């Protein structure tokens, strides 16, 4: 992942063995950046230019949403059809099933 200042790349964040970054979410209050990796079923927590933690997600995380007011991060897991909820304050994961309705 490239870190930009305007249109200039100032550095890159290395995710190591965690591959296939698929989606990104940012909490403007805390400054944390959340990157979901579909191939490794993980979420990297980035502070500045460093990966500070790697958290498990469900199977093939494909989207991420951040609620800056509550500090909750929501990761949609395509293959396991659930949502990983991460508490920024507790670094804790909870898996919630997706409810699908016929349209």
In short:
With 103 residues, the protein is mainly β. It has strands at 2-5, 8-12, 21-26, 33-37, 42-47, 50-56, 61-67, 72-77, 82-87, 92-97. Strand 1 (2-5) and strand 2 form a beta hairpin.
Describe this protein's structure:
By secondary structure, this protein is an all-beta fold. It has one domain (17-97): Beta Barrel (Thrombin, subunit H). Helix content is 0%, strand content 56%. The chain has strands spanning 2-5, 8-12, 21-26, 33-37, 42-47, 50-56, 61-67, 72-77, 82-87, 92-97. It has a four-stranded antiparallel sheet, with no helix packed on it. A four-stranded antiparallel sheet has the order 7-8-9-10, with no helix packed on it. Strands 1-2 form a two-stranded antiparallel ribbon. Strand 1 (2-5) and strand 2 (8-12) form a beta hairpin. The termini are far apart. The model has no long low-confidence stretch (mean pLDDT 83).
Strand tally is 10
* Known CATH architecture: Beta Barrel
CATH class: Mainly Beta
Segments where pLDDT lies below 50 for 5+ residues?
Answer: none
Round the Cα radius of gyration to an integer and report it: 14 Å
* Biggest pleated sheet: 4 strands, antiparallel
Helix content: under 10%
Along the chain, the helix and strand elements come as EEEEEEEEEE
